[in-house]
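Page 47, continued from p. 46.
Same chain as before, 169 aa.
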Amino acid sequence: MSRSLIVDQSEFEELCDHICDAGLVAFDTEFVSESTYRPELGLLQFATPQRCAAVDPLRVHDLDHWWRLMADDETTVIVHGGQQEIRFCFERSQQPPEKLIDLQLAEGLRSRSYPLGYSALVLRVLGQRVHGGETAPTGLVGRFRTGRFNTPWKMSSMCCRSGSDSARR
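Result:
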């Protein structure tokens, strides 16, 4: 699986085309909400079964292609505790996500555990422990490091295992 940090608009557009072709993507954001009226995006993280990428929104300024994909009815978007991701989508596209799966919410409906953190959810569904600063099981995706961020690939393992029963539990 390839991993990259995208800082160029054309690379971002190519990533969006890849996500559209894949039809399935795990998505997470890092943002700052202290001292601001609206949260400010600091990083977007994507994982398909073939590829993981982080996008620096301070260098890639036009994210409209992604927000349109998130709101379309053909791309399945997987999040964990995605309230803020939904808000970003709605604010930027004026449309809610059409095919969004929130793993935290789904597990809350399936069991009495809400809100269940990512590490506990991975342990329950995949039977694997997430250690320390990792937020994806070792060996499935791993961690992505850049000069500015230690970016966790949340939900990547779920997305990468999308063809198996464990991603649907």
